[in-house]
Amino acid sequence: MFFYLAKLLWFFLQPSCLIAFLLLLGTVMVWTYWARWGRRIVALAAFLLLAVGLSPLGNWLVLPLEDRFPRADLDRGAPPTGFIVLGGAEQRYIGEGRGAPTLNEAGDRIVEAGLLAHRFADAKVVISGGDAALFYPASSEALGTATILTGLGIDSTRLVLEDRSRDTYENAEYVKAKLQKLELLGPDKRWVLITSAAHMPRAMGCFRQAGFEVEPWPVDYRTRGPEDAWRPFDKVSEGLRRVDMATREWVGLLAYWIRGRTDALFPGPEGPAKRPEASPPSAPHNTEEALPDAA
Known about the structure:
Layout: H1 2-13, H2 15-30, H3 35-54, H4 57-66, E1 82-86, H5 92-98, H6 108-119, E2 124-128, H7 141-151, E3 159-162, H8 168-181, E4 191-196, H9 200-209, E5 215-219, H10 236-258
Parallel strand pairs: 1-2, 1-4, 2-3, 4-5
Helix pairs in contact: 2-3, 3-10, 4-10, 8-9
């Protein structure tokens, strides 16, 4: 229920939609008894559209998220046991329709997973992601990512597919359960988490709450760093997209913390003492792993 409710609420609460709804409301009111208020609402919506779309607001919201976790030092200590790459990097339904891999803005997740898999030839690669779509169902993201990685020369025997999760909390819970079953967890095991830099705080908080210690490897940066704090956007659509993405992460951090899905409101490199674990999510229908040689 939380998954569907979150999807529905976010559609109405994301800044770009709120501005559009304000514009629609004001336009309708202009033709009613409340015309004066309608004109004011239209003017407000127009101001917000330009302010949110062209100002550096999106960068202000993204920078604290992207700078929260530095990359782990993979050359120090034992080599990684494996890498965990979270879904969200594909337009899976388009890829199936076209018969070709179709990556979105988060495609760096798959690229980095491939690069690291070649760099550490003995490491496993865990691919976590089911089908999280509400209106355009497709096969699991784990299957799509596995197909891409094997096409890039990664041996399928190194891949571990987790194809049931629909959100970050389920990523953590189901990956942990999968690796426990395969006896790939333990104090001598070193796992590295690959996801978008802005998403890393929420992802790390979920894995910590699940009792699974991982090291961060953020990718898919949208800013260069502090020098972008005052860089405006040259397209309204790009500014709105950036604000929507960052707001989603901040709202997600709050909602996950309230529901006990993360170990802190804003997880950082040094995690606080763990809160009591939330009840694990009910498992959706099981699906077989598509690659016969995958672990």
